[in-house]
Amino acid sequence: MIPLLDLPAQHAPLQAALTAAFERVMADAAFIQGPDVAALMTELSEYLGGPRVVPCANGTDALQLAFMALDLRPGDEIIVPAFTYVATAEAAALLGLKVILADVRPDTFCLDPAAVAAVATVRTRAVVPVHLFGQCADMAGLLPLAARHGWHIIEDTAQALGATYQLPGTAERVAAGAIGTVGTTSFFPSKNLGAFGDGGALITTDTALAVRLREIANHGQPAGTKYRHERIGLNSRLDTLQAALLRVKLPYLNDWTARRQAIAAHYDAAVAALPGVQPPAREARSTHVFHQYVITCATPALRDAVRAHLTAQQIATAVYYPVPLHQQSAYPGLGQPGAFPVSEALCQTVLALPIHPTMTDDDITEVIQALTTATKTVISA
User: Fold this and answer.
1) Is 286 helix (H, G, I), strand (E, B) or coil?
2) Is 162 left (phi over 0), alpha (psi -120 to 50) or beta?
3) From CA 154, how far away is CA 149, in angstroms rounded?
């Protein structure tokens, strides 16, 4: 079977180094806030071009920590995309923030600045662009909106670590997560830089904000102190073992990204020639690290038929995401059916194809051949 992601194959060449890192942490027994945590944050900061990086327990906590550090209060409105993983809204709801949904663009799947402007009110305090599937949202459209109204921009970078964005009016490229007020990311095992369990981090160029984030993530304690708590915090720390293993993987991230991009280029050429399906569009100012390669089918029936055919050929696929946030039972009141037509349509028509660094050229050819056969067979039937 050709899987969506093959972690055993990805880890196999690193086995000796991963084992050595594991044994080092076991010997040191500094399991919480050991030296590998600080070392990983330094190395990740250098990789991202110099912003402050603050570790935490997972990507959902990263979002909650960002909301807390920015002093968002119950009833404050934050705008999030209707088409995203539930954690984006979940972290806000847990703090009593009022989640306001906005629709996404049909081409890039990311937050539409025009839709954001349409739902904003005087109570809006922040907007959370999700850099979905591996590329940045339209930050050139969102940054002026935020500046005009005094909003925070909290980037959900869980799927786009390593992507960069060209700021308007300059040739400068900035790492995803370091464009707005604060960025959040996840080291969930399936991510492009994945741990061997949960893990997360926050990214910011604001030194004072980084200090607050670090304190809140450690029970509200200032750095270097014990049993003195200056603010309400969380127990949200990245385990030393996870940091040590991530340090082994980080030097390979650029090579893994390059392979994902090469696979995507093969897919692009093939999908563009097929009836009834579209390759993922590119945000003009962003690079794309292809956490997922997601095609859009012309109809739900075509999507389901293509998926069934690929499954029969032992090719894994996935639907990210089958239900928009306003139709989730846990989040009533976010919008009636039809309120976010682009998000609703995407949930019925998107399909993720296998993409991971250890895919062989033969694997790519097999996926393309199966996809070609599926689309042409269904269209002609």
Assistant:
1) strand
2) left
3) 15
Q: At what angle do helices 59-69 and 207-217 cross, to 10 degrees?
A: 120
Q: Quickly tell me which residue has 């991971």 as its tokens.
A: 356
| CB-CB contact of 103 with 122 (8 Å) | no
Across the chain, which distance is largest between two alpha carbons, in Å? Answer: 70
Those residues with Cβ within 8 angstroms of residue 348's Cβ, 6 or more apart along the chain or in another chain: 300, 303
Assign 63 to helix, strand or coil: helix
Report whether 204 contacts 157 (CB < 8 A): no
When pLDDT is averaged across residues 324-341 and rounded to a whole number, the result is 96
The β-bridge partners of 78 are 99, 126
36, 242 in Cβ contact below 8 A? Answer: no
In whole angstroms, give the CA distance from residue 103 to residue 78.
14
pLDDT 10s digits, 105-157: 999 999 999 999 999 999 999 999 999 999 999 999 999 999 999 999 999 99
CA 171 to chain CA mean position, Å: 25
Record the tokens describing residue 303, joined without a space.
């999507």
Buried b (16+ CB within 10 A) or exposed e, 164-191: bbbeeeeeeebbbbbbbbbbbbbbbeeb
